[in-house]
Amino acid sequence: xxxxxxxxxxxxxxxxxxxxxxxxxxxxxxxxxxxxxxxxxxxxxxxxxxxxxxxxxxxxxxxxxxxxxxxxxxxxxxxxxxxxxxxxxxxxxxxxxxxxxxxxxxxxxxxx
Length: 112
Known about the structure:
The chain is mainly beta. It has one domain (2-109). The chain is built from one helix and five strands; from the N terminus they run αβββββ. Strands 1, 2, 3, 4 and 5 form a five-stranded antiparallel beta sheet that branches. It is globular. The two termini are 19 Å apart.
């Protein structure tokens, strides 16, 4: 979660879209080029990896999943799919052997 929250709210480029912009994904997949919070939407890795794609040792059977969505400033629980609300809800879920063991939720805004 701290990695995601350290990113910008929106891509600094002129053609920002929700999710990774062209050129931000790599093969094999890694987060090395992610530069804004919504690039992490639908990111999943098993076993967990460092940002550069190297596997973290001794985490066989563990999975991290990320969901990012816009939410209304007045309702931080209900996703808003149609337009940027200047508020994103980020959820990171950790599973061990397909059983959820931890979840972290944070809010990131487009305001200083």
